[in-house]
What does this fold into?
Amino acid sequence: MIALVDCNNFYVSCERIFNPLLKDKPVVVLSNNDGCVIARSEEAKQIGIEMGAPVFMMKEILIKHKVQVFSSNYTLYGDLSERVHKLLETFTQQIENYSIDEAFLDFSAIKQKNLYEYGVQIKSKIQQCVGIPVTVGIAPTKTLAKMANRYAKKNQNQTGVYLLDTQEKIRQVLTWTAIADVWGIGDRHSRRLTGMGIHTAADFVDKLPADWIRKNMTVTGERMLNELKGIPSVQWEEMMKPKKGICTARSFGRLLSDKKDIREALANYAASCATKLREQQSCGGTLHIFIQTNIHRTLDKQYSRSITLQLPVPTNSSIEIIKHAFKGLDIIFKPGYNYKKTGVMVTDIVPDKAVQFSFFDTVNRQRDARIMKTVDLMNNRFGKDTVKLAAQGYSKKWKLRQERLSPCYTTNITQVLTIKI
It folds into this structure.
């Protein structure tokens, strides 16, 4: 049996842990630069706030219903996510961290006879130790576990746990689940299947021949069919696969025209890509640098350009990647424009043990590796950007707009919650 543990309204729940006054009140969390809604409490959903809605179009409803609005605090959310995942590891040896707020747990080696009670224990432990409410769906396959979790959210509010341990229960959930809500069914397949009279997961299993599914939905669709029938077919991934491309690109908190400010932003984005490469023990061989103005400001002059740079030797050194990113910016930058966004993408990624060096390479790579290792150790211990390169600067004119940012309660000693007695 497999369990899917999913944190409920995760970003909102993170904010509520340290502010009990937010309980039972409508709460939303905004995207980068406080642009759109990316998380909603149940109360916010009930008053009609849509996911992805631009916040400037909702001022009336936010004021009318006294909605509590927060900028996205990814430092806080990431730390609490790590705490939840570490706690889940105490319940089983085989776990797949599917996303920041979801994880699959393999119960095949669990000796606990009552898996429903085991799910209740997991939910209770996370609530007690971290403070995040979760829902647990348990079933023979990953796809069915996803459906059991969703069913528990919608129909088992009191317990938040649902176990698909009989054919009758599986059939009930298959009939209840709309085809568009099946894990792995995209919009295109959903529209096509609905047009063919396939409205539920049960219809998918009962009405479509396996040959048709394989021909029209490839092997992915065939795996989905097996999963819905209770036959495990989706590969288990205990370790995250190394990324084939790493990108850091963000809009500035305000328009920038000074090349110095844009260089500082680009240096930070390049350093972020280098850090991610080191985390997965990889090196990148190609850089893509781009810069662009705001296409929505029709009165401004518009300009957008990118450039691709082949690195002499694949690297994960922040020093090298920043240096080459600056070379790219020097080529594509044009003065006299109000720039909105820049970014770095690293491709041609290879394992750091498989780098092909050049006979004419003059970079002291052993020295750079020692520097990067020390920087990573310091930042992991004392917080992000505690140590950084001078090129990353301190002006922060390019920083995201985060006017409603909550404190980093768990990662910054100066922002730890204080209690007056």
Notes: The first helix runs from residue 10 to 17.
